[in-house]
Design goal:
By secondary structure, the chain is an alpha/beta fold. It folds into 2 domains: about 120 residues, no CATH class; about 170 residues, no CATH class. Helix content is about 40%, strand content about 25%. Helix 4 packs antiparallel against helix 8. The radius of gyration is 22 Å and the shape is flat.
């Protein structure tokens, strides 16, 4: 049984960012889009479904605002997806019934009780949104600061030397494949800013190459070019982006077929892990050029620490407000009805043979 843990997405300067829409658009899967308010059992439902099939290969997508909660679940061999389709990751069926369908947990609400709690719900929701807006402001500043360091690294990068290293390493760990078609590139969010800090999920049984890079640019180019080589050789790859940038800047890379992973370790993510081979990217930068920007790099690193920690603090406050919202919704939910729905879904999944 293979189980990959990752995030559905992460906070960015433009709000929540995710690539999960491409999964839902895959017509080979059947997707259940779960609708409902906080505390109505969306995450608990997916946890129970995952527990009901302990031997199935699956992907578990956690919530970056609360890593203990699930935002999505994929049974990879049965090709069934369950995903929370409420804000900030609103999803709607593109092919209703045929490929996607809605599970409306709002059908199990006691509307009268919720109306009685209306003022408290509005107040807590407003406070929750304010904390996420505060988080976005800090992340916007954080993006600018690390973007400045990235530009320094980009200007100082010896791309010819880096390309030579990439090609040698690719020949070493990527055996030539005889198949004619290229591999595919998918996205799996392995890192995100959360109320618990900047968290990264490490897949089990992977050989890890650790890319130590204080200037960001070299490791990003390494991941981008290495993934291109792997895809051309016929390997499927999973890319994790850094949502803080607000673009598709590569942060980590998985090559499942050979159980090999590349993880960036930089001043933003503070990532540490036992590695098969740590790669120090200082060798790919012009030492004199970097030295001339030493004070600027140091300032940016210090500012990044402060801004990241403030973004984490804002998410902690947002989670506290979300907990209040859950406490207001939970008494109004018919959990017996949701239990019956869960048993019905388990029966439906059991009827599907693993592909």
């Amino acid at each position: 049984m293979n189980c990959l843990n990752c995030f559905l997405g992460g906070s960015s300067p433009n709000g929540f960012r995710t690539h999960f829409g491409s999964m839902i658009a895959d017509t080979d899967h059947h997707t259940y889009i779960i609708k409902g308010g906080p505390g109505t059992g969306k995450s608990s439902l997916m946890k129970r479904l995952a527990e009901a099939f302990p031997d199935d290969d699956k992907e578990i997508y956690r919530c970056s605002s609360d890593p203990a909660s699930l935002d999505a679940l994929i049974f990879t061999e049965r090709k069934v997806i369950f995903v929370d389709g409420t804000s900030p990751h609103v999803f709607e069926p593109e092919y209703p019934g045929a490929v996607q369908q809605i599970l409306d947990l709002g059908a199990y609400w006691d509307i009268g009780r919720l109306k009685n709690a209306k003022n408290d719900i509005i107040s807590a929701n407003s406070a929750y949104q304010q904390q996420h807006a505060r988080c976005r402001r800090y992340i916007t500043a954080l993006s600018a600061v690390i973007g400045d360091t990235f530009q320094i690294g980009n200007c100082a990068l010896n791309e010819q030397k880096l390309d030579g290293f990439i090609n040698r390493l690719a020949k070493k760990i990527l055996p030539a494949k005889k198949q004619e078609h290229e591999g595919k590139m998918e996205f799996r969010q392995l890192s995100a800013i959360t109320p618990e800090g900047y968290l990264t999920y490490i897949p089990d049984d992977y050989s890890i190459y650790l890319l130590n890079d204080s200037l960001y640019a070299g490791s990003e180019k390494f991941l981008r070019k290495f993934s291109e080589i792997a895809v051309k050789k016929g390997y499927d790859v999973s890319v994790s982006i850094c949502t803080v940038y607000g673009n598709d800047s590569f942060e980590h890379l998985l090559i499942p077929e050979i159980k090999t992973a590349f993880f960036t370790a930089d001043p933003l993510n503070r990532f540490t892990a036992a590695a098969k081979q740590p790669i120090n990217f200082r060798r790919f930068y012009d030492k004199n050029m970097v030295a001339s920007k030493k004070m600027r790099i140091k300032f940016n690193a210090s500012a990044a620490d402060e801004l990241r920690d403030e973004a984490v603090s804002a998410l902690k406050c947002a989670k506290s407000e979300h907990d209040i919202l859950e406490s207001l919704y939970i008494p109004a939910v018919d959990f017996d009805g949701i239990n019956r729905l869960c048993y019905d879904l388990i029966s439906r999944i059991k009827s599907l043979s693993a592909m």
